């Protein structure tokens, strides 16, 4: 006997991404207006952002008459772990949080990735909001609903798709970012230019130094263009079943090198090296010209990003680690490629990644 | 500036529940026909079910030409933990599993709850299939898409809604179940009778002994009626935003006592005690008559289930633990009640749980 359990439904995960300067009051006003439907909040942040921004937000939320607790993880990629997820869950349970709460993530990509995952499985899912305080989170991590933790064997492989109720990109918070964190965010920005926004790429060729100087107009320009590239792709393919893989440009080698460096390289630094590897491979296939490849490398360098593999990296281990990439299919490596600058190569219907033999990429890695 | 990320979509999680005898070959045939869209399988089971059924299924899957590995957790509720989830993830990663795999859960509710959760977050979600080998899993756990782990502070609070591709309820596997496991499954069956199927309840009043004797017709009858009650509720309210709470009948006290007993009580045994507590509270409110309440207790006893709180339970700790229930709202306990036998009490639009003062339930617990 067979029963059919009919579960066809319309799901609306639509949300707003607000870009601005000092959005703390806007956040509290939105919570008052019922953004999450909850009146009790777990503010999740890291040890650096706590004193800079999160404590203020936490106090403002309490002052607005809501229940709130703040939970602080140590700053750094190593906190994006299952252990830290457990710590947050246990702390929330101890403070009496149940399904009737919402999570407010205040921080960079580590905080938004982890807090979004915590929210997704706490009480089988509570709402969450991202308040992004790094350029990298604004450019990439906080938008799109991918949440995850790292494990010793692979980055970002344990996680879920979980869309926030709203994302705040507060450009003012970039002022306190160390230079290498700005650079790290620029790596994803340059990636966005390469894969989908030639104008953004050329704007950066003109103005990249202005970002480091904190120029307001330049920061707004890249915040908006980043967002536009990313959310357009996400809207078309939320679950990464095809098109969304284009956002993975540079990430096949990037993710692997990030792990093999044991996170001595920042995410964006690793992605920069991965972008160079991918452009070189693309040049071999004729997807980009030598001149275009050189422009990509030059722009990454001006953005104070590494374009060579550091000496301490074990290249054999790096090649092996490539196989932990989530694009791997039937044991084969797959890469995304830019076509010139501002577009990607399409390899078939809904297919944007190409199978690559190990020796082809190993050769490029050896030369870098 | 505000971008709106439009993510409205139609999701179809419809799946079949197949009830029968010896469905191993059907499973393999379905996998061949592309049920999961994958060709590599992680068979997850426990140390008891491994030798009884899972190893055979695993061998059949390999013999059909698929890639497969088997992962075995120790039998028992204590395995439904975050640590065991980690162990499975790491083992799967070590064996080279990535997003291009599917999970086959073979076992009782512990295995299906845990494996469904592992599948939901592995590579941000891979498909899974449940092959249920206990009456309790057939009656309840394997159907409906709730997956979870326990934590020291609460049962089932960390997890997600994740629908399988298909569920197999193999009645033949009940033959090897110890008597107390049959009883445990009957607790959920009686619960289903109480909340939504008077005919099922009365059938059990006539025939409950036949289930222990392995009578084929009686086992089929309850498998089908259980399934009908549960999937109808789930279809109307997958996410437990209202109606689905009715399935929580008896679980407020049940879950709490299960934790406080440190899992010395089986899930169904704990639910049986919880069902009595709820019926007694319901009698006080006039939702059931004294006679109906007595019929519920008598049927539970004939199903070899406990109807009193064991002496070793600390009743103060039990009352405190009630507050970890997921129905708690704004710090208030909430209970579901049956109305007579075969229906539930509705307390408002889409509201099936009633706020209860702590002393009311504490009094009942004291008397039990
Ligand atoms: N979910 C996605 O789609 C996605 C996309 C890209 C990257 N990521 C993830 O994002 C993470 C990297 O993001 P990140 O670079 O923001 O990491 P991060 O959160 O670790 O932030 C970087 C550092 O800057 C500090 N910091 C944060 N805001 C600050 C501020 N305003 N002023 C001063 N210091 C501040 C942090 O404490 C941290 O030490 C990685 O884990 C990566 O995997 C996710
Ligand atoms: N997801 C849901 O909606 C839902 C609903 C109800 C219960 N549950 C969960 O289900 C769990 C209880 O389910 P369960 O009772 O099946 O637990 P279980 O999986 O632990 O199985 C009970 C015992 O029987 C053994 N066993 C399994 N199949 C057997 C067979 N055919 N022959 C002999 N022995 C066999 C197991 O090894 C185990 O020792 C709890 O964790 C509970 O929270 C979940």
Automatic annotation (TrEMBL), chains A, B:
Example GO biological process: aromatic amino acid family biosynthetic process
Record pathway: Metabolic intermediate biosynthesis; chorismate biosynthesis; chorismate from D-erythrose 4-phosphate and phosphoenolpyruvate: step 2/7
RNA-binding among keywords: no
Listed GO CC annotations: cytoplasm
Domain of life: Bacteria
Purpose: Catalyzes the conversion of 3-deoxy-D-arabino-heptulosonate 7-phosphate (DAHP) to dehydroquinate (DHQ).
Keyword Nucleotide-binding: yes
GO MF entry, a single one: nucleotide binding
Gene behind the chain: aroB
Domain 3-dehydroquinate synthase C-terminal: 185-328
InterPro entries for this protein: Dehydroquinate_synthase, DHQ_synth_AroB, DHQ_synth_fam, DHQS/DOIS_N, DHQS_C
Catalytic function, reaction form: 7-phospho-2-dehydro-3-deoxy-D-arabino-heptonate = 3-dehydroquinate + phosphate
Cofactor note: Binds 1 divalent metal cation per subunit. Can use either Co(2+) or Zn(2+).
Domain 3-dehydroquinate synthase N-terminal: 71-183
Cofactor: NAD(+); Co(2+); Zn(2+)
Residues where NAD(+) binds: 109-113, 133-134, 146, 173-176
EC number: 4.2.3.4
UniProt: Zn(2+) binding residues: 188, 251, 267
Compartments it resides in: Cytoplasm
Protein name: 3-dehydroquinate synthase
Keyword entries, A-Z: Amino-acid biosynthesis, Aromatic amino acid biosynthesis, Cobalt, Cytoplasm, Lyase, Metal-binding, NAD, Nucleotide-binding, Zinc
